[in-house]
Design a protein that fits this description.
By secondary structure, the chain is of the alpha+beta class. It contains six helices and five strands.
Length: 230
């Protein structure tokens, strides 16, 4: 049995059987193509609508999250303002205290611990001597310049002189006064120890001397920030 595979073989064997005609109306073909195109357009529009819905939902979610964050921030702001108003009196008091400390530290910048100074002056005093009078004079100009090196006499301590002290008293001999002068020269903050006039009366000597005091004796008690710690 011979198998006919090509149109020419079919035509040669069975004339007329190789003729093929497409009798489908053009309107039907166009209708089918339009239907396919409609399905494609509908599918594209469906995908687009889905994407739009997803995008809209995402935007709404972001807007809700932003609105929630803004509401939280506003609430926190209100809370902080309430806390600030609550502690406003404390802040005002603290500012007032700082102002007082600043003024006090300036006014008392040359404050001297008198108890410490008198102890320093009396400690090297021999048993054979007594002090009857102590006069302290503070130089405001010297105290104001205490941060710079000063002194124009025998002061070689490297500290600024801020005042003078005059001592008067009694002793058994002039030699006691000489020893006391040497001892005072070793006291920190005491310089320029100069004996004054001595008066011998009977078995006692009335003596006097002057000395300068330097910024080493400033207490710094009223310096800002230090008062609260003492």
């Amino acid at each position: 049995m011979t198998t006919l595979t090509t149109p020419q073989q079919i035509w040669n064997t069975m004339p007329g059987w190789g003729i093929v005609a497409d009798l489908t109306p053009p309107e039907l073909i166009a209708s089918r193509r339009l239907a396919v195109l409609r399905k494609l357009l509908i599918a594209c529009l469906s995908v687009l609508l889905v994407l739009l819905a997803v995008g809209y939902g995402y935007v709404r979610l972001q807007a809700h999250s932003a609105a929630s964050g803004l509401a939280d921030a506003n609430l926190r702001t209100v809370q902080l303002r309430n806390e600030q108003n609550r502690y406003a009196p404390v802040t005002r008091v603290q500012n007032a205290i700082d102002g007082v400390e600043t003024v006090t530290s300036k006014l008392m910048s040359s404050d001297i611990d008198m108890a410490q100074l008198l102890t320093a002056l009396r400690q090297p005093l021999p048993a054979s001597m007594s002090v009857s009078s102590v006069t302290l004079t503070i130089s405001q100009a010297g105290a104001a310049a205490a941060s710079s090196s000063g002194g124009n006499s025998l002061n070689t301590s490297g500290h600024q002189g801020i005042g003078k002290v005059q001592l008067e008293g009694d002793a058994q001999s002039v030699a006691d006064l000489a020893g006391y002068v040497v001892s005072l020269q070793q006291v920190p903050g005491v310089v320029d120890v100069v004996p004054g006039s001595d008066t011998v009366s009977g078995g006692s000597v009335t003596w006097s001397l002057t000395c300068s005091v330097t910024d080493q004796l400033i207490s710094h008690y009223f310096d800002k920030g230090k008062v609260a710690t003492k």
